[in-house]
Amino acid sequence: MSGNTFGTLFCVTNFGESHGPAIGCVIDGCPPGMLLSESDIQADLDRRRPGTSRHVTQRNEPDAVEILSGVYEGRTTGTPIGLLIRNQDQRSKDYGDILQTFRPGHADYAYWHKYGLRDPRGGGRSSARLTAPTVAAGAVARKWLAEKYGTQLRACMTQLGELEIPFEAWEHVPNNPFFAPVQDVARFEDYMDALRKAGDSCGARIRVQATGVPVGLGEPLYDKLDADIAYAMMGLNAVKGVEIGAGFASVAQRGTTHGDSLTPGGFRNNNAGGVLGGISTGQDIEVSIAIKPTSSIISPRESIDIHGQSAEVITKGRHDPCVGIRAAPIAEALLALVLMDHALRHRAQCGDVVQSVPPIKASL
């Protein structure tokens, strides 16, 4: 499948390039009968869309999604769902200076050696533009999960560069361009303005949460739910680290505190991040991802050309000085895809399992 298809029963195949005529995906395995329209998908795409604030790329793409197949009279048919997003604001001339050189930190060098050629326009296939079809597919998955189980997904930024963002309330997240769970974002605005003026970039940390997840999703060993979540998150451009639950903080914890105590009334805490033995516990799924600084910056950097000779690279164009700013809806979509796929797999294998004792509450 050449790394372009994700999922086992809910399969998403992503296609297109950053500066091609269109990008999109084909979803295979969506159950029939679910009401689905472009508006169900567009809301999430609008949250990821470029040009929404001065702190992200100013590429002006409406990201209007078209449903090409798999829906009849407003309901999914069970056949492949084709989703198309047309590119409308390409500026390929911005990349004319890097046809013969490799941008440090980008996929240019690796793509060149793997395929023998590369599309330099906006990064081609390696561009974060290709996360738009992922968000579109994730919107379909999250709608089914919400209707079937009441599952809800949300994400927020918890760190911007070296600035940690304390959690105040989820209600603040949709009200600022950083997806930050705080009311006052003035210092983050100033930070990004200074960063852009300096011609530099920064990374970010994103928290992703799923509530209302049923017990039992996931498989032993190689198809563990948390393993597949980590696999999916690492497929997001610029992600360099993934934590589930307490993550690396568990190194400093003691066994007497890390293990999530069970009581008849529910779990006392959630260091496991909602997964035990690779299988969901019914608690909230808690994921944290680390995103590296944007590689496309205007500051001159040392590199080589395709002949192996020394070169200096200055990347022009319209780039996010922090790609993490628009990562929240993408991370939500990836988590939705994993949960959707495992929900269908669980239903196929264990749909007839009857529990004599109902699950305990997710938490006290």
Keywords:
about 375 residues, 5-stranded antiparallel beta sheet, alpha+beta, Chorismate synthase, AroC fold
- Record the strand order, biggest sheet: 1-2-3-7-4
CATH class label = Alpha Beta
CATH superfamily: Chorismate synthase AroC
Q: What series of H and E elements makes up the topology?
A: EEEHEEEEHHEEHEHEHEEEEEEEH
Largest sheet: 5 strands, antiparallel
Number of structural domains: 1
Average pLDDT level = 90
Between the first and last Cα atoms, what is the distance in angstroms? 44 Å
* Range of helix content: 10-25%
Which helices and strands, and how do they pair?
Elements (H helix, E strand, L loop, with lengths): L4 E2 L4 E6 L5 E7 L9 H11 L16 E3 L3 E2 L2 E2 L4 E6 L21 H8 L15 H19 L2 E9 L2 E2 L21 H12 L6 E8 L13 H10 L4 E6 L10 H4 L3 E2 L2 E2 L7 E2 L2 E2 L4 E7 L9 E4 L5 E4 L14 H23 L14
Antiparallel strand pairs: 1-2, 2-3, 3-7, 4-7, 5-6, 8-9, 8-10, 10-16, 11-16, 12-13, 14-15, 17-18
Helix pairs in contact: 1-3, 3-7, 5-7
